[in-house]
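INFO batch 0412 | record 1 of 1 | parsing
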Amino acid sequence: MAKTSVKQKRFVCRGLLVFVFFLIFGSLYAKSPSPAFIRTLKVKADNSSIFTVYENGFTLKIPGVEPSNVQTDLPQLPEGVQLISSKKEEFIGETGTRGTAVHLWFAFKDTGPVRLPPLIVIIGFRTYYIPFDDITVFENPDLINPQALVEFVSGAKFNRNFGDSKKFTARAGEEIIFELNLKYFSQIISFNWKLPKNSIFEEIETSEYARGKSVGRNFSDKSLPVAKFRWKPLVEGEYDLPEFALTAIAYNGSQRTVKIPNVILTVLPASQKVENSEGKIIDKRLFNSAFSEPKNTAGGFTKKKIGIEDCKKIAELRSLERNSLFSGKVKLEREQLEKKFSLSNNENEIKKPFVELFAVCGIILLALMVIFIILKRKKIAIMLAFCMIFAFVASFYKGTQIFKNYGIFAGGNISPVPEETSSAVQNFYGGIRVKISEKTSDYFYIESSEINGWVKKELVFEIK
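INFO prediction complete | emitting tokens
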């Protein structure tokens, strides 16, 4: 009986040990996350940008698992990647759920895309492989300098970015539009350029960043616009990109002179027909000789040669028209003089007093509107408001036209560049009303429906 009692006790003890063993390990297994839950986990970068020469943080959050039940390990890391440190701690989610947060800090030597091997995570007695986010490593902002990009947008063959030295071709007289962009900067300090030789070159858009708007110190790989330009080389040959001087503040606060990409343009001879700035076809033979006599014909009538004094007289009459409210006699005299020389100047002058009158009417209507608002005469005030808006709009629209410079061209040589030595010159008759687009000390750039180019300023009588 004694032997039976001892065997029974041993059996009971063994049963209790097995029960405790399964109870402990069963509870650990029960706490292990499901495979579906594990697939939702990812090791995420703490910041949107990863840099070289910097401790970049990554975090894995495992809700519902205590830190004591979590162990981590890493396989061999790629070359140029170093694990600096790691730690795990308890975290509380937004809904109050507790869990484990695993923090890791890495240093990267090289820039570019990097794929880190999965993090080995042991929860209880089960092993999982948790992937990292795909990342791209950038140069440390404290070490990087502002970078300029040139983008040509005038046509499909120029619509690309140039980072290094690039070459492309165009024809003389062909219009090229390009943008200058900048990245890795916090603010532009100064921006200017030198006009290229034998070219028509103008800025057509200026961004707020070129005028000094701050971008801030937050890193961005996005290029921001500086300015857009129109460039028309007029003589065949090889051109460098116009010389730009751009100074910007880097992310580390230092001022840097930005290097512009080296772009080389080879200009071929103009095609037999080229387009002018208004899209009209001009026969290339107009540019063949500086000594050819102009064919002074228009509308089937032979143009009489007009003298400098007559051109000056037309400019004076147009100036009187512009500055007089009632100028019927002056206009008639001017039209008769233009008809005498078979000139087709159909444009009438905008009258300055007319613009001033509308501006004064707008101010008076504004004052009356305020008075009637005070008197609570809403209907009359609304009517006056509409009249006031019309007066100001008319004044503004006509006023913008007054500030454009016009003149009467006395006739003579027109050059594609502001130089007497240019080989591409055309000779044209006088008496034409032209727009003065640019001025230098000795030359005006003039435009009309018939001609455009550089002329000596004494050949243009301004309409004032």
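INFO post-check: Residues 297-349+404-463 form a domain with the SH3 type barrels. fold (CATH 2.30.30.40).
INFO record closed
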